[in-house]
């Protein structure tokens, strides 16, 4: 393998490993180090940011010890931590293994930057390969997927990475600072939007779902999509083609930055129906900006075209000039190392600023736009060289191959869920409500199988805290993974943003979906009420409203409870009605009384007290099911378990005749 190919592939594999460790580290911070919404967001952010800040020492270490030994040691530690995390999917040990892997990965990145002046092909390939692997695993993070395919993939990637790392790299020029500065922002935008299979599936479920929401809704609902994450194939192919093709010149070079910023603006608008164009625009724009930065780096940091053939010290030169020339590569290596770490600091600051907003309440829509503007500004800061270096990867062939592989992975990993009412209406239906905490258990482990076992036997399930692709939580689609395990179609409604909200799953067909945002009244996290109708056939229907009330600090969610009760009664329009979810209020509280005042009955009353939170030592009764008096309730329970920080509640309802 040629040096330029070896360097590109090795860098790509390192990026895959670093991203995989990040997918474990970020959710571990909010589920193991602390508890989101209870541990101060400032403390969580400081813990996460501190490790990125510590990596600023890496370039100085590299300058003192040398790039090759530091990079080799960091690469080995990254691989060891990555494989160790695979065998420790939960608990404090997982947090510290992921933290060690993150720090090793950041040091490795600084070392790779010191020795590589043309990183764009490797960075782009690594981001694309990571997206493909995440699609193959159906967004189920390999660190929590303990079967042999995950081990085989992890060992294979790690082995190839170390083999490539052991080979000496070709001499680097004096450029590359701009490209390395964009590594962190590119990783953030790719994971948040551009190359996320979970976001692509969610975008498709808004755009091409099998059930349309009420046109009068202020926000739409997302349902089982026809094509799953298939549009990701277009995003991956477009990203690679734009990143590897020769950079555009003149006015054309503005197309990529404009597309990137435009896609980020669509994300900031927070509407599900805009997610799909946001994914595609961001992917192509990000690739084009990386290509522009790489082409500008061809001039070197001093603005002169780089010469990649080293000149022997003192050959035909004044000795002082020869000494200065020998020092130039060392200074350039240091600048690239600091640029790579600075880019990852941008990643950390932006990630903390964006996701902490859901605990602190500050506006965050401008964060992805600001990162996109930064990337665009770096890409446009300097004109490309007259003759850009040829990419070590053929752009069209590489992009087409990646697109086809991504499409096949998307088709193979996705399941089309369906429901039927051909057997006629049942006499009873078992309803469950479950706050799934984005899929993470009390030990910090992401385990959709445990979630499915917790609500096994339920016919209709109302879910709260459903995550469909937040990078903070690992970038998986919790709803799709759970729906596939239960073999239940779903309807999803956004609450905090288009990727986080509530859902209803059912063994029978669902229709007439409607959603209403709830007044915030000081709560930092958004809330909504989702209404769907379960069609049992023969004129028997059941209205179900799923919600997750967000109380203002130190208060009962009375205003939101009143809004939900009013919406639910109007939505049911006289039909049997169920209101279920994490209501963050206890029997006897004012918010609880709003539901009974609306004529609803506590379906769990016979089993009280029925404590559900926290799951490992329940003290609070805050998860509830309310029904209209025509539904007879029995067999209420809160099955024990720690697959989430709440216990599910379930009750069997006897349906009235049509």
Report what the structure shows.
50% of the residues lie in helices and 13% in strands. It is of the alpha+beta class and 658 residues long. The strands form 2 sheets. The chain has a 7-stranded mixed beta sheet. The protein has a 6-stranded mixed beta sheet with strand order 6-7-8-9-11-10, covered by helices on one side. Helix 20 links the parallel strand 8 and strand 9. The longest helix has 37 residues. It starts with a helix and ends with a strand. About 3% of the residues have low confidence.
Please supply descriptive tags for the structure shown above.
658 residues, alpha+beta, 13% strand, elongated
List strands and helices in order, with pairings.
Layout: H1 3-33, H2 41-54, H3 58-65, H4 67-86, H5 91-115, H6 120-136, H7 148-166, H8 177-181, H9 183-194, H10 197-208, E1 222-223, H11 231-244, H12 255-268, H13 275-297, H14 319-355, H15 357-360, H16 366-380, H17 395-413, E2 428-435, H18 448-454, E3 460-467, H19 478-486, E4 490-497, E5 500-506, E6 510-517, E7 528-537, E8 540-548, H20 558-572, E9 577-582, H21 590-597, E10 601-602, E11 623-627, E12 632-637, E13 649-654
Parallel strand pairs: 2-3, 8-9
Antiparallel strand pairs: 1-4, 2-13, 3-5, 4-5, 6-7, 7-8, 9-11, 10-11, 12-13
Helix pairs in contact: 1-4, 1-5, 1-6, 1-7, 2-14, 3-4, 3-14, 4-5, 4-7, 5-14, 6-11, 6-17, 9-13, 9-14, 11-13, 11-17, 12-13, 12-16, 13-16, 18-19, 20-21
